[in-house]
Amino acid sequence: MTEMIYSLLMLGTLLLCLMSGVWVAVSLFMSGMVGIWLFSSAPVGTVLATNVWSTAAEWPLAALPLFIWLGEILFRSRMSEDLFTGIAPWMRRLPGRLAHVNIAACGIFAAVSGSSAATCAMVGKVAIPELQKRGYDEKLILGTIAGSGTLGLLIPPSIILIVYGVATEMSIARLFIAGVMPGFLVIGLYMTYVIAWSLLHPDRVPAPDPALPFRAKMRATRRLLPVVLLIAGVIGSIYLGLASPTDAAAVGVFIALILSWSFGDLSWSSFTQGLMSATLTACMIAFILAGAAFLTVAMGYSGIPSDLALWIGGMGLNVYVLLAALTVLFICLGAFLDGISIVVLTTAVLLPMVQAAGIDPMWFGIYLVLVVEMSQITPPVGLNLFVLQGLTGRDVLYIAKATLPFFFLLVLAVLLLVIFPGIVTWLPGMMFA
Amino acid sequence: MQTFLTWIYRISGGAAALSLASIGVIVMAQVLLNLADALWGAATGRSIGLLIPSYATFAGYALAFATFLSLGLAIRSGAHIRVTLLEQRFPRPLARITSVLIPLLGSVLGLMLTWNIGEMAYDARRFGDTSSGLIAVPLWLPQLVLLLGSAVFAIACLHTLVETLLTGRSDALEDTAGKEQFYD
């Protein structure tokens, strides 16, 4: 009985802190302290110091600030214009035309950036005015950008997959590669939807531009080439086992600096701004991870995760029912929590249960990212919606309505992953060790 | 006093940025050495094993420094995320209470971290603990940097606490949603 009350006290502390607006990291530490104090006789402060010390200096986590920095450098470069002018000529003949540029540009930028909102902002700032000028349907523009922006979380390098990998002590390289095929799947679903929508609403798509000869297309794409090579280098070297994600990130930063210098948009101020911004973001995420690691120790003392696993195991629940229930839970959590907090709370509390149910943790990581992607485009707290609100001045609900079809496409993608888990596991299985 | 504190956050944050950049430099240098080694190996048939000793350890330390030294600046510039959705709907008296509670809990954590990391570093110095690996670094050295970072974090939280107690608000707690806050 006391165990039960202690557990409720610990979880209550966490919920109360989060709801009152205490910093997420501090909330995790606080409930961890309450848990250790209640459930063990260990000195709270000593556990705190040793735990923080051992998690703060982890080598795999070094990939995180480097990939954030890589995104910051390219975000401050000329790349967003190049993305638009480089992709647009190739999409002229597809039904839906330049709306596909949004999806493809987000897909490419997602492959250098690990963030959904950064992807959204980067593509949106150039593509929205260009497409509006050409008379595209505003809802289609906003929907494609908000929806495709979430690819930043899935296509490697992905900040959220680094967080998941560090929190679960799994190989980040394998998680990255596992995200590739689902990324293509989501791009495919989005493009199919845009084609279908345009065929159904021919009156709301502007008239086609004349086709460009192949050489003119190549000329327009030429400037995009270095960035595409950079991406291929980073992901390819991880896949081939030539480099760890941390190594690949460092080389990526180095090349991105050279590229942005050769483009002529690397100045001392843009360099320091990018570095400072990356430092603060990395600090925020690493501190949440430290808090989550500390909470995990407390959870271990409390036995809550293993009890939960036993309880679910005892119910003999069907895996599909469990996943459906989890999906609803995550969508609700996503309405007020951010993606990284959802991931660390899941790994601290739910992972033993998930494993007890016989779900592959690598598959579960990708599933979790897809569900978190959904929360990026659902109100009231959907970061992509905020970014687009900032760019267009439209209110969040209007943008959310425009994005709704893409939310359902993500639900469809999750269903496909459940039915065909091979979409996730096939590519990492082929990796060179 | 204000400007003095701002300088502390800035210097500490600047040192954090330098640490982050040095992760890149350390890792990049090792990658170049690996590359040189592979080329040399291909040319002569035997590799020489070029290596920055304990480079993973040093990159790890640099990461910890980058995280801890920027904690204070991150608090003051609102970079740490928190749930602001419910707060906006709180009635005034409740909002007044949480505006004090938030930095108060931050200060408690900051002071606990400072005290206990301090104790850990003191013990490490007393017992002469060193890192394992090719280069044995006395552990109290990197721990001292974490101690400094924790102290700046505690100062930033106390600073915010004093502000909310005196004026009922603080720039550090302003809602940042929609600003350039991308990696959540």
Sheet/helix structural class of chain B: mainly alpha
Query: Largest interface, per-chain counts?
Result: A-B, 76 and 63 residues
Identify the quaternary structure here: heterodimer
Estimate percent helicity of chain B: 55-70%
In sequence order, what are the helices and strands of chain A, one letter per element?
HHHHHHHHHHHHHHHHHHHHHHH
Model regions low in confidence, pLDDT < 50 over at least 5 residues of chain A: none
Largest sheet of chain B: none
Radius of gyration of chain B: 21 Å
Number of strands of chain B: 0
Task: Describe the protein's architecture and organization.
The complex is a heterodimer of chains A (433) and B (184). Chain A has helices spanning 2-20, 24-39, 44-56, 63-75, 79-87, 99-110, 116-133, 138-149, 151-154, 159-168, 172-178, 180-200, 214-221, 225-239, 245-262, 268-302, 304-315, 319-334, 339-356, 361-376, 383-392, 396-419, 422-429. Chain A has 433 residues and is an all-alpha fold. With 184 residues, chain B is mainly alpha-helical. Chain B is built from 5 helices and no strands. The two termini of chain B are 33 Å apart. The interface between A and B is large, with 76 and 63 residues.
